[in-house]
Design goal:
- This protein is an alpha+beta fold.
- It has one domain (about 1-80).
- Helices cover about 20% and strands about 15% of the residues.
- A hairpin with a 5-residue loop joins strand 4 (about 75) and strand 5 (about 80-85).
- The longest helix has 13 residues, at about 5-20.
- The radius of gyration is 13 Å and the shape is globular.
- The model has no long low-confidence stretch (mean pLDDT about 90).
Length: about 90
């Protein structure tokens, strides 16, 4: 299974697939301020701290399950964390 779309949807699909023992990947999306060189840390995801521009943006369901921020918050252009749905 390959999933792309909103974080909440990808998280839900990954969780369901893991429970059903279905392998797959998500396509994570974040700002790559340094041009995808792995220098700025803007695309790091909590709590595992991987850089989506280097170790991603395609991640296994097992790796995605460790990311607590999926569907909860994202980083805006200034690097500040923003709760999803908060404006």
């Amino acid at each position: 299974m390959f999933v792309c779309g909103p974080d909440k949807m990808m998280k839900a699909v990954a969780d369901m697939c893991l429970a059903a023992k279905v392998k797959g990947e998500i396509s994570g999306e974040r700002w790559f301020k340094c041009g995808g060189m792995g220098l700025c840390g803007h695309c790091c995801v909590d709590p595992i701290g991987i850089r989506l521009c280097v170790e991603g943006p395609v991640l296994s369901f097992e790796t995605a399950a460790k990311i607590t921020e999926l569907g909860e918050y994202h980083r805006v252009k200034s690097s500040r964390k923003e709760k999803i749905g908060a404006h």
